[in-house]
Request: fold
Amino acid sequence: MAKSKFEYVRNFETDDTCLRNCYIVVRLDGRNFHKFTEQHKFSKPNDNRALGLMTRSAHSVMEELEDIVIAYGQSDEFSFVFKRTSNWFKRRASKLMTHVASQFSSSYVFYWKEFFGEQQPLLYPPSFDGRVVLYPSNRNLRDYLSWRQADCHINNLYNTVFWTLVQKGGLTTAQAEDRLKGTLASDKNEILFSEFDINYNTESALHRKGTTLIWEKRDETVTKRMKRPNEEEKDVAVTRSRRRVQAKHCDIIGEPFWEEHPDILEDDN
Ligand code: DGT
Ligand code: MG
Ligand code: MG
Ligand code: MG
Ligand code: MG
Reply:
């Protein structure tokens, strides 16, 4: 087919192919969620409806898009890791990032009511920014995920003590902030334990560890009506191995998680 004289404009497109052999991480983060969470009356410091909706949306990203081997989320963010050898959309960063961001955002709106019901309507369309980062080694990728989980821990410990001081201790937010200035993790644990009888380590794992989504093989048995030659039609149990997205709220910094799930990462070499 003859090309139009306008065709040359295609050459202005720049190449954004992700380097081969690297894990491709797409991280999304809610835009201006400081305001969004206030306006939608999220409970403090953690809103389980909101966390459930984030996980539901990430689940949809993993199921609808190709080659995501693990995802990790906390607060208003979610990271998606594409396998090293993925060739989805020829590894074009903009394609991967925008598909993740739009699938996630539309799911967040689509499933809103399932989590917030009728009493809290969605007041305006939320959005999520996205970025792409490449990690060449398993160590780097694990350190990336550890960084996000450590961030979850640091923020959640702070927020837990802060809101306990306010909600149960009767401090103003300014007083609570003052009280926590310069405190270490051990001091925060101590405040919770000695003043409020709260053992931080037995607080909700969802809040302390965030949410990790992985694929797990499960045997599923369904009954099918079958007819064999020279036999009556009858119900037969058929077992199939199916891949399903599973949510975990466990430590992903240490070795045990990776020893239990050796299929997530490909060997370095
Ligand atoms: P950004 O990302 O630069 O557009 O701005 P923000 O405001 O989204 O800032 P970010 O992402 O650093 O912080 C997330 C905000 O969302 C932070 O204000 C805390 C809030 N948030 C996240 N999860 C919850 C929750 O479960 N409950 C409440 N009350 N707030 C939450
Ligand atoms: Mg931000
Ligand atoms: Mg944000
Ligand atoms: Mg954030
Ligand atoms: Mg098209």
Summary: The domain at 16-152+205-209 is CATH 3.30.70.3000 (Alpha-Beta Plaits). The chain has a mean pLDDT of 96. The longest strand covers residues 211-226.
